[in-house]
Amino acid sequence: MTRADLPCILGMEQSEFLTPWSEESFRHAIETPNGLNLICQRGDEVIGFLTGLVVLDEAWITNLLIAREHRRCGFSRRLLACFMDRARVRGALHVFLEVRQKNEAAHQLYNKLDFQKIGVRRQYYSDTREDAWVMRKTL
Ligand SMILES: CC(C)(COP(=O)(O)OP(=O)(O)OC[C@H]1O[C@@H](n2cnc3c(N)ncnc32)[C@H](O)[C@@H]1OP(=O)(O)O)[C@@H](O)C(=O)NCCC(=O)NCCS
Fold first, then answer.
1. How distant, in Å, are the alpha carbons of 7, 83, 88, 92, 130 from that of 57?
2. pTM of the model
3. Catalytically annotated residue among 13, 16, 45, 98
4. Would you call 71 helix, strand, or coil by DSSP?
5. Which run of H or E residues covers position 35?
6. Cα 109 to ligand 1 centroid, rounded to whole Å
7. What residues contact residue 81 under an 8 Å CB cut-off, 6+ apart?
8. Atom of ligand 1 at shortest range from CA of 72
9. Of the chain's two ends, which shows fewer C-beta atoms within 10 Å, N or C?
10. In whole angstroms, how far apart are CA 135 and each of 7, 9, 33, 87, 99?
11. pLDDT at 95
């Protein structure tokens, strides 16, 4: 992911999420030395992205989105596999993420990839007051 991808990424982000990340948040993700940020491209078109971090032996996935018309084609699975491979190379032993309690598609995805629910942050999301599930996978 580079700055050049941001207009497309911001469009997808804003059309999907109730509380989208700002351009500044993405710029910060790109510029932070621990960042591990990937895009998924079909031809020249950016159809998805994943942002994450690797800090010591922990990797964190902070955002993941696939454009609606390209869902259920295995792109998330591939982005996540690529992220985990690269995180492992950087020394990560575990990968963590937070997911909304009611995000059934994401739960199915993470369950399929053997993430385990390890905790709950009560009313973590201020827009809907939903809980966040904290999930972990050992690499
Ligand atoms: C969740 C999301 C990232 C999944 O992306 P995707 O590219 O469609 O997922 P994949 O095609 O790689 O799916 C892999 C597996 O996950 C599960 N899965 C994914 N989406 C699913 C859905 N809507 N319903 C049920 N299972 C689903 C399935 O087991 C699927 O395997 P299968 O298609 O062989 O049955 C996508 O729906 C999305 O961008 N949602 C909006 C943003 C979001 O919720 N991000 C996650 C924040 S934590």
1. 32, 14, 9, 4, 29
2. 0.97
3. 98
4. coil
5. none
6. 5
7. none
8. 11
9. C
10. 30, 25, 24, 16, 8
11. 98
Q: From the CB of residue 92, how many other CB atoms can be counted at a distance below 10 Å?
A: 23
Contact between residue 66 and residue 74 where contact means Cβ atoms under 8 Å apart: no
Q: Indicate the number of domains in the chain.
A: 1
**What's the CATH code of the domain at 61?**
3.40.630.30
Q: What is the dihedral of CA 81, 85, 87, 93, to 10 degrees?
A: 100
Nearest to 63 by CA among 25, 7, 105: 25
pLDDT of 36-77, one tens digit each? 999 999 999 999 999 999 999 999 999 999 999 999 999 999
Q: Domain residues for 132?
A: 3-138
Q: Which residues line ligand 1 (CB under 6 A)?
A: 16, 64-66, 71-77, 99, 103, 105-106, 108-109, 112
Contacts 24+ apart (CB under 8 A), 44-49: 45/8, 46/5, 46/8, 46/9, 46/12, 47/75, 48/12, 48/75, 48/76, 48/79, 49/1, 49/5, 49/9, 49/12, 49/79
Tokens representing 35 are: 């960042």
Q: Tokens standing for 126?
A: 């201020």
